[in-house]
Each structure stands twice: as C-alpha cells, then as structure tokens.
Design goal:
With 129 residues, the protein is an alpha+beta fold. 42% of the residues lie in helices and 25% in strands. Strands 2-3-1-4 form a four-stranded antiparallel sheet.
C-alpha cells in the first residue's frame, strides 16, 4: 500500500460516514509530488478527473502551490500543493472514486503523480462558532 491509498480503516470510516451524512463535504488535498515529473503528471490527472467531478456535481474551490509556511513549527511545508474540492455529499465522492471509468482514466495519473498525500474530509462548523 502506498502513501496515497486509504488503509482499510480509513475506507470503512469513509463508507460509514457516507451512509450517515448526506451533507456537502469539502475535501482538502495536501499533495507531495513525485520528484520525476509529478507536478506535470498531476496536471494530466486534473484534466482527466474533471469530467468525473462534473458527473457527481463536485466543484474545485481552490488549487495552488504551497509557497511558504507563515506560522507553524516547520520552515517548509512537506506538501507541494493544496487542492480543495466540494462534493455534494460523501456518497458523491465515493461514487466517483469507485467508478471503473475513474479508476481506468483518472486514477493512474494521480497514482503516478504523488509521492504522498493527505486527503481530509471536513464538516462545517455551525454559524457563529
């Protein structure tokens, strides 16, 4: 198992959360590119994944380089880029990433592009918090 694939516990948690929560979810992608053309390969992934995002109603809210750490206990972030994507629900995300078409046409670029990643599902705080 690579540092870009979820482990069995993470998969179980995702499926459980998808069945219990139909609210929109914002996914934070912290990306560490492979040294051998990882950034360029990730751009190929970005093009290949767009039709899959469109099919489930997902929206890219932000994508950009991690230029420098402003506050924290490291001088340089371990990740190279950040991508923030909103999905209509966790089920929409699961539907996308488990589809055979995504697995064949998009995922190979992601797998080739990344050395490591953290993919974090978020829930909004109540207003006023």
């Amino acid at each position: 198992m690579s540092a870009i694939e979820p482990n069995p516990d993470q998969i179980a948690t995702l499926f459980s959360a998808a069945s219990d929560n139909s609210d929109p979810v914002v996914m934070i992608n912290l990306l560490k590119f492979d040294e051998n053309d990882g950034a360029a390969t990730y751009q190929q992934y970005a093009e290949a994944v767009q039709p899959h995002l469109d099919a489930v109603g997902a929206t890219i809210l932000y994508a950009g380089d991690a230029s420098h750490v402003v506050a924290g206990d490291v001088d340089k972030a371990w990740w190279d880029a950040i991508v923030v994507v909103q999905y209509p629900s966790r089920t929409a995300f699961v539907t996308m990433v488990t589809s055979q078409d995504y697995q064949e046409k998009a995922h190979p670029y992601r797998a080739a592009a990344l050395e490591s990643t953290h993919l974090i599902a978020t829930d909004p705080w109540p207003v006023g918090r």
